[in-house]
């Protein structure tokens, strides 16, 4: 209250805050909706006010109302307003509201980009945190693209709090903007080893999430994760990693072998149930991935099953549930070890907890065998009777059907039993699975020929008692069964007047339309059989009566509201009337009528239609008639019904196929059809159909009331069980008698689809069942590859991460980024870099060669020749300062075989090495891996002493293995050569000239760490480093980023930054400030912390370097005292700081050179002993150039100043730099600066 | 990934809802109703996992919940999360609430939904677990509250 009064705003005082709103709603229980609507009106008023506090309060209330289900998207703009408040309190409210109600369709989201960017770079970590949290909920593809780079920078923030949030949100960014994955991945990987456990956990989290969807791309991280697994103590992280391994092992069985031991150790040692459970789970995954024929893993299986049994027997329902869940995974590969626990699982079926019962059901699915199927199903049927809720009962029903029908009815020995079970299931009231039962009936009747007679009898009973099933006519209700029953009776029935009568009862008209239609159609089929039966009999009374019955009953269906029923009924009615006429003339019609329904229908595989290849000459995309105009129906694309075959077929037009060919094909087709028993041949007879009669002809039908009240179940299921046992025993006895006779042949005949386990071959099916397999088009194989959802967002993230980064993949950067993106090489072995560079420098002298003037021309010609060839690379050569550092690796991306194979062999080695105790393994694996790979490649023939040799990235732990080093180097050399060799092989067509790729492949040498920041000033309290960058948007401004680092133990505050302006360069100060006022640095520095501030300078002329004097004043505050300190510095504006790395394509570059507008100058650097690509990288990095093209040891480079001057450089091996620039004084200065850079090193 | 976090009371009244995937408001309410319906009919001594919220998720998703006095805390998660881990996380979250509100009860959640959200934001971010260490969570929440207070003081 105090706050409000002090604020003195009258309307503010009457405002409701969130608590008041909640209280109000609770006090208006009767007319809540009305009360809320008045509140919303108030809120709308509040949102109109200028006071941000009022607005924020209103938005906060809206967030609450959103939870109650009110749409608050109308306030989206106000939410954005509150988000952009400078106060954390309000900002937080705004972001919360946004995260609750913004989504991809919210249009104001695009207004937030800049605000979010500002918040992300806010000096206050909580502003950044709040923005990240909010963004994680409503990030859109646009936001992801625009902010990816900012977030990536935050991944290296000084505060772990920000780092972990930035790392986590990257996953969302990847999902929305998959292009960001590759550029961001190296840094993400680096975060796996972040010193802060929270950040590490976040990185593990993100990579696990990524790897779960596309595991194969992350296989190469396995060693790293293995290390984490054996070293981490954070259970949360361990669980994630172990889960990840579970996803990886199916791809690499050797990984599994390596994992078994540490996982078993964890299982034995951990006290955390969650961890134990995940370990068991992953061990199971490993066991599944390993070939089952490995006897030495039976111990692991036993361990798992044993542990799971303990879980299942636990009184904690959660553990019981999980135990069952994991057990079902073992079941798939090791059914035997689970089957011994059948008692336990059946026991779980009686559990009061539905989740547990469902899990147990799942397990039963895998536990059935021919022996126990009937028994298990019987148990389940008992449960069906007991179950009260329909959901669980339906679940039971589907499970019974699943269990029985699995793997092509593999476990069913007696199909009569199964049909009876299905019939019994129809007694379930209110089930939603009528359709499922119906399709099972159809499937069995069609595919098991031997059972048809029995099925017809059962179905006839069902039809006869249809009234019991029609109570529930809802969609998918049990009445669906009648559909199947009618069809089966019609299709397979021999002769049955009674069924025909049952199908034409008036009650049928209450069934759903599609069922009636089947009734009508199949009544006609039955009619045909009746006719045939009575054909030849002298007394045609029966046949004529049947015709009369149809003529009497069918008109009811002609009246049906359902078109299908109506149409069929009227057709058939006319047909019957015609037949009746013929019958009266004593004409024999039966054969012709039967012919109407001749031919057999075969089951078709579900994917068959998709697999039908497009017939040759059929072009679905071609116009049959040219379209009348462009205006309409362009957006509707026909769905692809046929599988796409070779694209070339699309080309071949129908008309192009000549007559002969057509005739030949027709012949072939006819032949095929003749040989195909399933092909339905054209019916020899065709009947004419007359118009439907008038309604007045329809006689009134008598209602048949003589129906029994209970479905007489023909065969009780228990009976089957008993019969089956008896039969088996009999068989056994029989077999004992004639043990020596071979029986298998007899059995093998009818059971192609049957492939039961060996042990079960003893049980013979009661019937010789002929399981017809489903039809597929010729040569088509049923496959699962088309099951994947094409809309899965994770599909876009299926990106090869081992390939090195191309520049074209860089994230869009809007403002310049002072932080340097480390190159992948650096990432991998930042530790070993210093030593290696030293080493190399010694050798580097060899490679000095004298460059000649003529070379330039030649290289130009080559350029032109290879223009096409290099288009791709040119794209790669876009430039940012950090990209330039990577340019070497970048080019290598063009040669993936080499780089990936290196990775792969690395992994191979890691996997193949004998399992070592975990602690030792970490130390040993890394270095020895390099050695082992080398020996394998020692036979490589080529040798080129002049080439700089480089060390592989994998030897990270070099410090511990100095002794080995020399040897290793040697081997590395050879390895490299092999790679080169390999590479030449690939690019053999490039001939003698080394193309850009060829020239660089061998120079994988890791680049030394380069710091873009240079020292500004330093004293005992503070250190300042700075960097200057321009941007294209403003030709007279540069931004100076200064990092302040507190070196003392005290708190530094009130830092003020001031620079003495010159005529040419001025520090931009806020409006109203005098030209000599200093700028306050917007943060304070606790001990040991560093932070960055940016200052904008306006510059006029950029041709001369300049130094500006400045001062930083600050207060050092320690516990006892605070002192005022001062630090002077000189800001050095070099000419290169006005250059901006700009990509340039080689043709544009050539034009520029030819234009003659440029003035030239050259420079020779002496005593440079670094590899050529280092040199280029340095120029790129420090002087903001980009490589246009590089051939051998000669490179052309380009850059542009903020005022649009072009600068071209030609650099040759001898470190002879020739440059051209429009502005000659500027040119001289830049060259001087380059010289200076290299003289330093 | 966590798809949604729902807190509602024994009568199905929502106390906090957090969806990490977009659903329109009416759909959100339906999901709450369905989830409440599924969860509320279960005894307290059955397991805390539930399959088959038909509206949210599908086969890959599970509801993992805990029931405290008058409140249900329900997390809808996919198979990448460890079931027992999430149960622990719910416990951590509730204990954190208890610390921040000092003996939390339903009324705290009713009147301070925003604060509960701020606490949750330190535990789960964008559907992924951010922090599981209670002390760290509490520390961050407090620092932010302190900052809010200092802003209020500045106004005065």
Automatic annotation (TrEMBL), chain A:
<protein>
    <submittedName>
        <fullName>AP-3 complex subunit delta-1</fullName>
    </submittedName>
</protein>
<dbReference type="Pfam" id="PF01602">
    <property type="entry name" value="Adaptin_N"/>
</dbReference>
<dbReference type="GO" id="GO:1904115">
    <property type="term" value="C:axon cytoplasm"/>
</dbReference>
<keyword id="KW-0472">Membrane</keyword>
<dbReference type="GO" id="GO:0043195">
    <property type="term" value="C:terminal bouton"/>
</dbReference>
<dbReference type="GO" id="GO:0048490">
    <property type="term" value="P:anterograde synaptic vesicle transport"/>
</dbReference>
<dbReference type="GO" id="GO:0030123">
    <property type="term" value="C:AP-3 adaptor complex"/>
</dbReference>
<feature type="domain" description="AP-3 complex subunit delta">
    <location>
        <begin position="657"/>
        <end position="802"/>
    </location>
</feature>
<keyword id="KW-0813">Transport</keyword>
<dbReference type="Pfam" id="PF26171">
    <property type="entry name" value="Mu_AP3"/>
</dbReference>
<dbReference type="GO" id="GO:0098830">
    <property type="term" value="C:presynaptic endosome"/>
</dbReference>
<dbReference type="InterPro" id="IPR002553">
    <property type="entry name" value="Clathrin/coatomer_adapt-like_N"/>
</dbReference>
<feature type="compositionally biased region" description="Basic and acidic residues">
    <location>
        <begin position="844"/>
        <end position="862"/>
    </location>
</feature>
<feature type="region of interest" description="Disordered">
    <location>
        <begin position="645"/>
        <end position="669"/>
    </location>
</feature>
<dbReference type="GO" id="GO:0010008">
    <property type="term" value="C:endosome membrane"/>
</dbReference>
<dbReference type="GO" id="GO:0048499">
    <property type="term" value="P:synaptic vesicle membrane organization"/>
</dbReference>
<keyword id="KW-0653">Protein transport</keyword>
<feature type="region of interest" description="Disordered">
    <location>
        <begin position="729"/>
        <end position="998"/>
    </location>
</feature>
<dbReference type="Pfam" id="PF06375">
    <property type="entry name" value="AP3D1"/>
</dbReference>
<dbReference type="GO" id="GO:0016182">
    <property type="term" value="P:synaptic vesicle budding from endosome"/>
</dbReference>
<feature type="compositionally biased region" description="Low complexity">
    <location>
        <begin position="893"/>
        <end position="904"/>
    </location>
</feature>
<keyword id="KW-0677">Repeat</keyword>
TrEMBL record, chain B:
<dbReference type="InterPro" id="IPR016635">
    <property type="entry name" value="AP_complex_ssu"/>
</dbReference>
<dbReference type="GO" id="GO:0030659">
    <property type="term" value="C:cytoplasmic vesicle membrane"/>
</dbReference>
<keyword id="KW-0333">Golgi apparatus</keyword>
<dbReference type="Pfam" id="PF01217">
    <property type="entry name" value="Clat_adaptor_s"/>
</dbReference>
<keyword id="KW-0653">Protein transport</keyword>
<keyword id="KW-0968">Cytoplasmic vesicle</keyword>
<dbReference type="GO" id="GO:0030123">
    <property type="term" value="C:AP-3 adaptor complex"/>
</dbReference>
<dbReference type="GO" id="GO:0006896">
    <property type="term" value="P:Golgi to vacuole transport"/>
</dbReference>
<dbReference type="InterPro" id="IPR027155">
    <property type="entry name" value="APS3"/>
</dbReference>
<dbReference type="GO" id="GO:0005794">
    <property type="term" value="C:Golgi apparatus"/>
</dbReference>
<feature type="domain" description="AP complex mu/sigma subunit">
    <location>
        <begin position="1"/>
        <end position="147"/>
    </location>
</feature>
<keyword id="KW-0813">Transport</keyword>
<dbReference type="InterPro" id="IPR000804">
    <property type="entry name" value="Clathrin_sm-chain_CS"/>
</dbReference>
<keyword id="KW-0472">Membrane</keyword>
<comment type="similarity">
    <text>Belongs to the adaptor complexes small subunit family.</text>
</comment>
<protein>
    <recommendedName>
        <fullName>AP complex subunit sigma</fullName>
    </recommendedName>
</protein>
<dbReference type="GO" id="GO:0006886">
    <property type="term" value="P:intracellular protein transport"/>
</dbReference>
<dbReference type="InterPro" id="IPR011012">
    <property type="entry name" value="Longin-like_dom_sf"/>
</dbReference>
<dbReference type="InterPro" id="IPR022775">
    <property type="entry name" value="AP_mu_sigma_su"/>
</dbReference>
<comment type="function">
    <text>Part of the AP-3 complex, an adaptor-related complex which is not clathrin-associated. The complex is associated with the Golgi region as well as more peripheral structures. It facilitates the budding of vesicles from the Golgi membrane and may be directly involved in trafficking to lysosomes. In concert with the BLOC-1 complex, AP-3 is required to target cargos into vesicles assembled at cell bodies for delivery into neurites and nerve terminals.</text>
</comment>
